[in-house]
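During the reporting period the student researcher (J.K.) took over the structure-prediction task from the postdoctoral fellow and processed the backlog of single-chain submissions. One of the processed entries is reproduced below for the supervisory committee.
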Amino acid sequence: MQLVESQQQTRASLIHSSRRSLLLDSLAMPVSSMTSSELKIRQRLGKYRIERKLGAGGFAAVYQAMDTVQGIRVALKVPHSQYTTETVLTNFRREIRTTAPLEHDNILPIKDASIIDDRLVVVFPLGEETLSDRMTRRISLETALDIAEQILRAMDLAHAHHVIHCDIKPENVILFPGNRIRLADFGIAKVSQRTVQGGGTGTLGYMAPEQAMGKPSFRSDVFSIGLIIWRLVSGQWPEWPFQWPYAGYAKLRGRIHPDFIDFMHRAIDLNPRRRFRDAQQMLSVFLRLKSRTVRHARARRRPSVKVAQAIAS
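J.K. obtained the following structure tokens:
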């Protein structure tokens, strides 16, 4: 039995290594003249048929497409033509090698990356929506904490492999059925930001001050996660210069356990030395506080429910 399991694990490892090798080889192809027009609906790109545009940024556009061979829908990230250069491909290959060991249920995997019709095309599983989209609707405390835990578990693994994400934001958190999230853009975020900005990495509004100065660290990712958790729980974004109390504090004080407020405050501290050292430490504290925070919130809700029932009767 152990021999069979060992053989299966070895086979899976070989398949994964082979797939990664093919992906890297495909990016070693020379880049000639890149087309500048954006993709059109129903346009074919290799085996992919474009169905709709999901969004676009300074570095790339993202499309929903049908894989006409496998018969499944996928997400395609296609960098703008002016950024598809030999330098970008070299940086992209390096980042893929760095992030290849990050296999986790809460990390969005790259299904394929290759040059198709003179375009760099990166293929991902297609989710239902981004966390940014989900934040436009009400989110219960229990759901908010569940999302926060999944983000932390993804980054726990990344930091254990010495990988800094550098661009953790709601647009890079993809929701799948069953309320499962997968954190996207590992490696790609660094390449895109270096290419567009020519230096530091990250998205203004979500990055730590030291990261904006070109000195990212595990603690910078902690800062970005802290911002997202605060927004999930309070409904408001802390903003620069991040002076305490942050926006939404009055609302939190009435229903969230003080220890969890302190937890979020520590994550978003302007001084990186006062933050959690990495996602592993942050996750450990989060798990100790999670159930206590939920019980506290439910206890605070009960009197309100009783008053409402009394008024109704």
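The committee noted the following: Residues 307 and 313 are 10 Å apart (CA to CA).
J.K. will present the remaining backlog at the next meeting.
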